[in-house]
Design a protein that fits this description.
Blueprint: H1 3-9, E1 12-13, E2 16-39, H2 45-55, H3 61-68, H4 72-84, E3 88-91, E4 100-103, H5 105-116, E5 120-129, E6 134-135, E7 145-146, H6 148-154, E8 157-158, H7 169-173, H8 177-180, H9 183-189, E9 191-199, E10 204-217, E11 224-230, H10 237-245, H11 248-252, H12 254-270, H13 273-284, H14 291-314, H15 319-344, E12 348-350, H16 356-366, E13 370-374, H17 380-383, H18 387-395, E14 399-404, H19 420-432, E15 436-440, E16 447-451, E17 455-459, E18 470-471, E19 477-478, E20 484-487, H20 490-501, H21 519-522, H22 558-565, H23 569-578, H24 591-600, H25 608-618
Parallel strand pairs: 2-8, 13-14, 14-15
Antiparallel strand pairs: 1-2, 2-5, 2-9, 2-10, 3-4, 5-6, 7-10, 10-11, 12-20, 13-16, 16-17, 17-20, 18-19
Helix pairs in contact: 1-14, 2-5, 3-4, 14-15, 22-23, 22-25
Length: about 625
């Protein structure tokens, strides 16, 4: 299941509503023990004790029941199995419970083999949950565990150990190793019982992936609850309990972060006319059914359908059973369609946090006529897997409008440069496809997603940069609540499209304005008309000398050249050094070295407009 599917399935707690969700790294320790174990027995423990008691002349059913503390009914049932296996023989008595019992040679050999089996030493490894503060009894595959380096590489939200220390000897002494050892490990190692265990070596810090859902009170936003789930959607109540008992919400400052973000967000959005217009329309639209309940129901039905389909693929049952599963799938699909219709009938409503990413993916896949995205930030990690869908839309002739940029941060800000590769891709495609319109706006806080006449969303979600968590100015991950409103009325969508379109009044430097699409489909665009090319001077007048292609120095750095050529910066630096100029990432290279570098890569020098783009993106004038 995707994080969005899990969040949709559990989008409500009694009295609470979902406000945020995160893919998280749950900490654990791998602990190695030197254990004294008894090998797995070939017969159940009850049978072994009955055989040993009979060997010691406790040889009637009533005597066995009294000696072992078992019911006569259970003793009779187990004796039936032992007699059938030729381990015990019975001599008739006055009744069943007084019949004399004795071991057969085969049964006597089993008792003697069990007595001869000594305990053995075994190295055991347990995964110890650093939040629940208990062993993880379910099996975790080694490949599912992540190292601290991998967590940083994957960009997961790393949760701290609670409390922030490794388990000490006193904490480990409370472990019941017979219940803590996973059943699969017990079976693989053929262990019947763990007699004792002692920690050896160092504990290794590892992580397992999970999902953290954050809820606020439906009537009191000061009430916050946190729940944890595995990546396949299984609730983790032991982690919930440990997080609460060890004051996890206070350690992460979840309530404080939500309050601060909500205050800033409301002030920011309420000052945006686009957002106010959409919210006002949504508040006046016809009320819908219980959309939240329908969203949760849709997610649960999707999971049930997927499970039934797996059963059909894996089953070896007769055709009649397969037909029954198919009929059940059709019934579930009908229920899912009914739940989805409740969601789609809402003319205007607030989006739940987990709806944003699927809606963005749907727009990139299904847009037929137009797609408009306004998002101040661009992040290469978020956009890289989505560019192929964007190019497919362009191939199909869909008009794509992308507005980005904001004025609060300068171009030297690290966040402003996290989308350099995507921006370069968009610039190249804008020259290739006349139906791609890319504009640096620099004046918007509200983020917009509009597809055809199907929907328009205005709110706080950064469509091209938000990856499930945000960071503050110090680089620390924070929780946040997204506020977005969706409208599905075609007339309102068209009105908002024309309103947003008026902002697309200038292009990234160097890209020529494109002719507007047909008025019947998009209406009149607010782009300036392209000026006609000046006619050449008549032949009888001597032509002036052609000016140099570049008058001012190009003043490019290795970082700018790498962005323009799509190369790694260190490759450009190495090439510059080969041309006898020492360089760092921000060294301004001489024009001679710049020409040599472009010649080395068999690439054309940047045009004046491209130079303007590169300087604008890197803060170099």
């Amino acid at each position: 299941m995707t994080p969005e599917e899990v969040a949709a399935r559990y989008n409500k707690l009694p009295g609470f509503r979902l406000v945020d969700y995160h893919s998280v790294a749950l900490p654990l320790w791998l602990i190695t023990f030197d254990a004294l174990v008894i090998a797995e027995k070939s017969h159940p423990v009850v049978d072994e004790f009955i055989l040993r008691a009979i060997e010691r002349q406790v040889n009637t059913v009533s005597d066995l029941a009294g000696f072992l503390g078992l019911s006569e009914k259970l003793v009779l049932r187990r004796l039936g199995t032992l007699i059938g296996s030729d381990l015990v023989s019975s001599q008739p008595g006055p009744d069943r419970t007084s019949a004399a019992l004795r071991l057969t040679p085969k049964g006597l050999e089993i008792v003697r083999d069990a007595a001869r089996t000594p305990p053995r030493r075994e190295k055991l490894t347990l995964a110890y949950d650093a939040i629940a503060r208990q062993p993880i009894t379910g099996r975790i595959a080694r490949e599912a565990m992540r190292t601290p380096q991998q967590i940083k590489q994957y960009g997961l939200f790393e949760l701290p150990a609670l409390p922030g220390r490794a388990p000490d000897d006193m904490e480990l002494s409370r472990i019941n190793y017979n219940t803590a050892l996973p059943k699969d490990a017990r079976k693989d190692l053929k262990i019947h019982q763990v007699l004792s265990a002692q920690k050896v070596g160092n504990m290794a810090r590892r992580y397992r992936e999970g999902l953290m859902l954050i809820y606020c009170g439906a009537s009191d936003a000061e009430q916050v609850a946190v729940r944890f789930f595995s990546i396949d959607g299984r609730p983790m109540p032991e982690v919930d309990r440990g997080f609460h008992l060890n004051r996890g919400m206070q350690r992460l400052s979840i309530l404080e972060q939500l309050k601060q973000h909500r205050t800033a967000l409301e002030r920011e959005l309420m000052g945006d006319g686009d957002y106010r217009a959409v919210v006002e329309f949504a508040n006046q639209s016809a009320p819908a059914g219980d959309v939240s309940a329908s969203i949760a129901q849709t997610a649960k039905l999707s999971a049930a359908i997927e499970e039934k389909q797996k059963q059909i693929a894996d089953t070896k049952s007769p055709a009649t059973e397969i037909q029954g599963l198919k009929a059940e799938i059709e019934r579930l699909r009908a229920e899912k369609a009914a739940a989805q219709s409740v969601i789609e009938q809402a003319q205007g409503r607030f989006l739940e946090p987990q709806e944003h990413v699927p809606l963005f993916d749907r727009a990139l896949r299904d847009a037929k006529r137009r797609l408009l995205i306004i998002s101040p930030w661009i992040n290469d990690r978020i956009m890289e897997p989505k560019l192929r869908y964007l190019e497919e839309l362009l191939r199909r002739g869909v008009e794509v409008f992308i507005g980005f940029g904001i004025t609060e941060r300068g171009p030297d800000d690290r966040k402003a440069r996290q989308g350099d590769q995507t921006l370069g891709w968009l610039q190249r495609k804008a020259e290739q496809y006349r139906n791609l319109h890319v504009v640096r706006l620099g004046d918007t806080h509200a983020k917009v997603l509009l597809m055809d006449d199907r929907f328009v969303v205005v709110g706080s979600f950064n469509w091209m940069s938000f990856g499930g968590f945000d960071r503050n100015e110090n680089g620390v991950r924070v929780v946040r609540e997204e506020l977005s409103t969706v409208v599905t009325v075609p007339a309102m969508i068209e009105q908002m499209f024309q309103r947003f379109l008026s902002r697309f009044d200038r292009y990234i430097g160097g890209v020529q304005p494109k002719p507007a699409p047909e008025a019947s489909s998009l209406g009149k665009l607010a782009f300036p008309e392209a000026k006609p090319t000046p006619q050449p001077t008549p032949a009888k007048v001597p032509k002036p000398a052609r000016p140099a292609a570049v008058v001012a120095p190009m003043a490019l750095t290795p970082r700018m050249i790498a962005t323009h050529l799509g190369k790694k910066p260190f490759v450009v630096i190495a090439t510059a050094m080969e041309k006898s100029q020492f360089a760092t990432m921000e060294t301004v290279l001489s024009d001679e070295v710049i020409r040599a570098i472009y010649s080395e890569f068999k690439a054309a020098l940047p045009s004046p407009s491209e130079l303007a783009i590169l300087r604008d993106n890197t803060g170099k004038q």
